[in-house]
Design brief:
Blueprint: H1 3-13, H2 47-50, E1 70-73, H3 79-95, E2 100-104, H4 118-129, E3 134-139, E4 149-154
Parallel strand pairs: 1-2
Antiparallel strand pairs: 2-4, 3-4
Helix pairs in contact: 3-4
Length: about 160
């Protein structure tokens, strides 16, 4: 048995079908060449041009010289009391024309719940239910309280 026949029999045992004899080989195929027409790629508009985003007075980088315009300390409040007080103070600060507010929640070190009750409750409320004039929220830098405080920035009036 020649090597070619042996190869074909092995391939058949694996379920590989042989090529048809009348199929054109790659050398005999004719290839028609046509010029390729390139299209310009789709480039979406940048969001800043197509979307009128409200302005904020948040500094691009918060340095040690940054001081919030208004501060509220929620130590000693229950979760519901803290949210009520925070909502009133947010409206008050925004109506006064302030651009930022520091919300001190504490780190919850003396709480029976790991991480405290107020920090996650206040952050969740700010994320989901805060007034429309709240532009952004973020944890305060370490010199302003770190994970025990939240910075709130307002839209410009």
């Amino acid at each position: 048995m020649s090597e070619e026949n042996e190869f074909l029999s092995k391939m058949q045992s694996l379920g590989v079908k042989p090529l048809k004899k009348d199929a054109p080989s790659a050398a005999k195929r004719t290839v028609r060449t046509q010029p390729i027409q390139l299209q310009k790629p789709f480039v979406p508009k940048s969001p800043s041009k197509s979307f009128n985003r409200p302005k904020s007075s948040r500094p691009k980088k918060i340095t040690r010289q940054f001081e919030p315009d208004w501060t509220i300390d929620l130590h000693g409040c229950t979760g519901d009391e803290a949210i009520d007080l925070l909502e009133r103070e947010l409206h008050h600060a925004w109506q006064k024309g302030y651009s930022s507010m520091l919300v001190i929640t504490g780190k919850g070190l003396n709480s029976s719940v790991k991480g405290g009750v107020l920090p996650p409750r206040v952050m969740d409320w700010l994320d989901e239910d805060s007034p429309s004039f709240v532009y952004s929220i973020e944890h305060a830098p370490i010199y302003l309280g770190g994970t025990g405080a939240i910075l709130v920035f307002f839209e410009k009036n």
